[in-house]
Amino acid sequence: MQVDNTPHRHPELWFDDGSIVIQAENTQFRVHRSILAARSPVFKDMLSFPQPLDAELVEGCPLVHLHDSAAELSVFLRAIFNSEFFMPFPVGTEFDIIVGVLRLSHKYEVEYLRRRALVHLSSGYATTLSKWDRIVHYIPTADNDRVPAMDIITWEWPRDPSYLAVLIPLVGEVGARWMLPSVFYHLSSRLAAFTPRRETLQDILNTIDDQIAFLRGHGIQSHSTFAEILTCLFEKMDDSCPSPLACAQARLFGIDAASKETGPFPCSPLEVWDETTWKAFENYHLCSVCLPSLKAKHKAAREKFWQELPGHYGLPPWEELEKLKADEIGTSWIA
């Protein structure tokens, strides 16, 4: 089937009084060069050169070809020319919109849009364990005003995990490394969804250093569920336990439940044990001595795993990543 490469106008970004036509792939955008130059120093420099006498024109406007995707250029230009299209946090948006705006605002140095896109994207990836837990149990609401700012996620994770093939290279491209521990954890816990699409995983981790770091981190993460997070179930019971037999049986229940929940690939150590499981423990008569003791050990194990998570994937510690995040997008956008 022959593909039609005839240029066509973008339906929303063709202004009759526009002074320049930009083409990406086979889509043309007629916009105002003065506004582009005011928003972007890159465009300002690009458009400052005198046009040659034989310059290609479209309806009397100079034509500029860009090597960007039409989809990403569309959302980027809409964000510039339509103030209501890409609103600041905490107004909701979409993953594809964030990606297009972030990539091109970084490339063309439109700093206010770059920061806005980074804030939106960061809302879905935690740098603290408490935020991670809120993300895991997050329920979107139509009225964000009723949700504390720290709990708001302005976009939904796409169902198809192949979106990570776009996200991970982009995060590296724009220097937003503070998201990578959470992103790699997310990838590792859902790795089975990529099998047997080996090419997709290779696209995501497109350097040998990334691949080695991920494999190391994935191995540690897979091992951590029982070796670290649930190790309390295998430890010696407290000497003051009033019902050792009942508590031992409850622990056996916990081990069995965790094994069934994780299956043969326990790659989600932070999600494998939650309040529902602890309530089930109470039904199995775990005593008043052992229950709080196990909860405390489990909490400490999760916090230890979280603190060590960046290092598992060859990344700097959280303190350094948090500083990078604050330097790039500040802290006032979130409680």
Kindly describe this structure.
InterPro entries: BTB/POZ_dom, SKP1/BTB/POZ_sf. The chain is an alpha/beta fold and 335 residues long. The protein has a domain at 1-71. 52% of the residues lie in helices and 7% in strands. The chain is built from 14 helices and five strands. The protein has helices spanning 33-39, 41-48, 70-81, 95-107, 111-122, 129-136, 164-174, 180-189, 198-204, 208-229, 244-262, 275-283, 290-312, 318-329; strands spanning 8-14, 20-24, 27-31, 57-58, 61-66. The protein has a five-stranded mixed sheet. Strand 4 and strand 5 (61-66) form a beta hairpin.
The secondary-structure element order is EEEHHEEHHHHHHHHHHHH
Taking the sheet with the most strands, its summary is: 5 strands, mixed
Q: How many beta strands in the DSSP annotation?
A: 5
What structural category arises from helix and sheet content?
A: alpha/beta
Query: Which outline best applies?
Result: elongated
Count of DSSP-assigned helices: 14
Q: What is the gyration radius calculated from CA atoms? A: 25 Å
Beta content: 5-15%
Main sheet strand line-up = 1-3-2-5-4
Average per-residue pLDDT, rounded, comes to 85
Helix percent reads 40-55%
The parts where pLDDT drops under 50 for at least 5 residues are none
Distance between the termini: 54 Å
Protein name: BTB domain-containing protein
InterPro entries: BTB/POZ_dom, SKP1/BTB/POZ_sf
Pfam families: BTB
Domain BTB: 16-89
